[in-house]
Design a protein that fits this description.
Radius of gyration: 15 Å
Largest sheet: 8 strands, antiparallel
CATH architecture: Roll
Shape: globular
Number of strands: 8
Number of domains: 1
CATH superfamily: Hotdog Thioesterase
CATH topology: Thiol Ester Dehydrase, Chain A
Length: 169
Amino acid sequence: MQESRAEAPAARHGLLFDLNAIDLSARVRSKADIESFLPHRGQMSLLDGVIWEHAEFLQAVAIKHVRDDEFWVAGHFPGHPTFPGVMMIEAGAQLACYQFMARKCGPTLVAFLRIESAAFRAAVAPGEDLYLLCREVKVGRRQFVSDIQGVVRGQLAFEARISGMVTAK
């Protein structure tokens, strides 16, 4: 893979880029637009919209509305539902895959290869919006590495570095 724009791993306790200059109420892509690239459907289609994307798809911000009718609410954790960390990472991975496919190859199947340096810093509950940030780190013809983060209530909820690869055309 060739090096891309940013070499640093996900920023520890800081955001990948400034959200203050982004209108978080905007939508540049709908759930249907995202699903035209991603195969995820039903309960595994985690992105509700793309709020902002770099003109060359190098960075993006998306939103996940965490609802009280989702499958995990009753059991994770009873009386204190908390959006599972693995689902947060999956939502960020879906944004990274969308970003890669939108720029590189159009709709195809892209699979997760690796999660590195994952850290969880704040709980996310039903009724809250999780803002997902993605910044591409490396890109090749069939592979990518991206830093992802989630923000809830203005604070960092999680961060990780992920990699993925085209598995089918």
